[in-house]
Amino acid sequence: MGILSFMADFIDSLAKRHRLLPWLLAYALLLPLPFVLTILFNEYLIDLANRICLFILLAVGLNIVKGFCGQVTVGHIGLYAIGAVTSAVLSLEPGGFGGALGFGWPIWAAIPTAVLVTAFAGLIIGLPSVRLEGAYLALATLGLGESVRIFIAVTPALGSSTGLMMIPAPRIGSFVFDSFTSYYYLVMTAAITGIYFSFSILRSATGRAFQAIREDTIAASVNGINVVKYKLLAFVLSAIYAGLAGALFAHMPPGYLHHNNFTVIEMVTLLLMVVLGGIGNVWGGVIGAIVVAIAYDQTKDLVFYFMDRPIVFQPLVFGLSMVLLVLFMPRGIGGWIEDFQRNRRFVRRSEERLSGTARNP
Amino acid sequence: MALLETRNLSKSFGGLQAINNVSLKVEPNTVHGLIGPNGSGKSTFFNLLTGVYQPDAGSYIEFDNINVTGKPAHYIAEHGLSRTFQLLRLYGELSVLDNVLVGYHPHTKYSPFAPFFNGAEVRRQDKIVKDEMFELLEFIGLAEHAEIPAAELSGGQRRLLALGRAIAMRPKMLLLDEPGAGLSPVNVDNLMATIMTLKERYKLTIVVVEHILKVVMSTCDTISVLDHGQKISEGTPEFVKNDPAVIEAYLGREMADEDIRAAMDA
Predict the structure, then answer these.
(1) So what's the pLDDT on residue B254?
(2) Is B108 part of any domain?
(3) What is the tens place of the pLDDT at every residue in B60-97?
(4) What CATH number did the domain enclosing B201 receive?
(5) Which residues of B are less than 8 Å from A201 in CB distance?
(6) CB contact under 8 A, A209 and B102
(7) Mutation test of the interface with chain A: which of B102, B118, B122, B137, choosing the one with the most A Cβ atoms within 10 A?
């Protein structure tokens, strides 16, 4: 606790000087990561770091709709797929491999368009939330999300079973983001910016409206919150995150996209991140994304042999850990973070009261 | 000119006629009591006024010269009609300050997307609003608990917070659904004193549903009595107290006059 308190004090003192200082510090600390990873381990881990950044974007986005607004959605991975495929197809050259569609757009036009398309798709996935709640809403969104994947899987123009290949890498001038290391700076910047804006939303009237809907929908409507509008807005905002993550995934080296990246298993992994992180807590979601992505990556090749037949037991372990988490750690890592922050606030206020300098927060 | 007026307000749930042709006027700057035995339709009446339930065809509700019949709850709230709930319905996990900030929501001036495009403006406005809401919390005596989650307040503090949240939107009219439920007699008196100060301070018109007749009799200018979804009596506290129809609804026909007086004064 001593080290944590020291760090928290340090971050507070930085934030007091300027709101953005802690963020810039975090950014600066993350800059040398690819070199550290290459020296200590191997270059493959940079690819893992890139995927973790995308998962952070996804988890932070999912947290907006599920954590802040309390709407259970299992269609998030479908939005990720829409963002990825849209950006890939828009930027591919026409007449590509295997009958894939291609429009030959510049990448910096394709990515924002893909985000907008995904935002619109988020609106559609959010429509059932107007009438449905809880498990029923989960079922409806699951159906919508999975139908996106199946549609991609059976449509040759979108890659079908072979996938989309040779998706171009982004470039600025003559600099091309086609290596793990260069792409890392792209996705890491996106992840940090995503986390920052998620806090901006949470701390505005928009975020408070989301949370009011989560806590008590009827009270929220009587307090003048247009519940339908804000529910859909939460879906749209989370879709913007998913669309950006998807588009960045499509152009990530080696520029290959397959519908297997958008299965229900991926969705469960994503849910696991948010649940482990603590539903509604932004930093918890980020830590959850890092932990689960590493665990997922390190266990995916584990097999044991039963009567000489290989059995991949990763899905079992992940399913089981989800159940155990919900049973024994319902507030997740975020619960610890919140307890820690509240203790600090309590101590600080007590000190202020004792010294007679209590102030308006 | 009445601030709130209902004409032929009706609501049925399946075969149950919860509210039956109630016409009512509430004059500005008054305290209007709404009483009636359990199940007489008081809460349903509030839910109809605030748009939580939609009224049956033929009903008409006018608030502040606007027809609000069948309008959604947030629309009615935006026009200055606020309420509390019998079961409070606080946002338990949100801090006390955030609870009143949500109450202020209809007056938010920036767009929901502003956190993305104009963070500085959001912070500037939120700072002003937070100071204002903090003053409100100081006034109702919850300022020192501003940062703790609402769920951790005591029962009496929660009732105060529910009141604060309803007032945060600067309403023209406030509907109070059993503000004193579950409080000791002393606390009820304190709460009613707070409510009356708030009424003066914020120039409110109040409609109050309350079971504690002593409270209603002492604070209300006009009282309407509901029974089985119908308005059976209306007038000054003195008039209602002595109306045979009211006495019958509450106590039945058999009881002696003195018993009734005793019950009313209790």
Answers:
(1) 59
(2) no
(3) 999 999 999 999 999 999 999 999 999 999 999 999 99
(4) 3.40.50.300
(5) 115-116
(6) yes
(7) B102
> For residues B68 and B76, is the Cβ–Cβ distance under 8 A?
yes
Smallest CA–CA distance from B110 into chain A, residue: A205
Place of tokens 């007086």: B261
Q: Do A360 and B134 make contact, defined as CB atoms within 8 angstroms?
A: yes
Are A159 and A220 within 8 A, CB to CB?
no
In chain A, the percentage of residues whose pLDDT exceeds 90 is: 50
CA angle A346, A348, A352 (to 5 degrees): 115
- The number of domains in chain B is 1
Structure tokens that stand for A312 in this block = 């991949």
Which residues of chain A lie closer than 8 angstroms to B108, CB-CB?
A: 205
Mean pLDDT of A307-336: 83
Domain interval for residue B32: 4-80+171-265
ipTM of the complex: 0.91
DSSP H helices, chain A, are: 2-17, 21-30, 33-40, 44-62, 76-91, 107-126, 134-154, 180-202, 205-215, 217-222, 227-250, 264-277, 282-299, 314-328, 332-354
A167-176, A294-303, B10-19 — which one is most confidently predicted on average? B10-19
Predicted confidence band of residue A361 (pLDDT cuts 50, 70, 90): very low
Is B104 inside a domain boundary? no
- Residue B150 identity: A
Percent of chain B with pLDDT over 90: 69
What's the rounded Cα separation, in Å, for the pair A361 and A348?
11
Is the pLDDT score of A296 beyond 70? yes
HSE-up of B23 (CA within 13 Å, CB side)?
A: 3
Give the pair of three-digit tokens for residue A113: 């368009």
For residues B80 and A328, the model is more confident at B80
What the block records as the tokens of B199 is 């009424």
Rounded to an integer, what distance in angstroms lies between the CA atom of residue A219 and that of residue A198?
Answer: 24
Residue B139, in any domain of the structure: no
Look at residue B237 in the predicted model and tell me its pLDDT. 92
Nearest to B74 among A215, A221, A360 (CB): A221
One-letter identity of residue A343: N
Instruction: Name the residue among A222, A349, A360 with its Cβ closest to that of B73.
Output: A222
Q: Which structure tokens are listed for A208? A: 């408070």
Structural domain includes residue B195:
yes
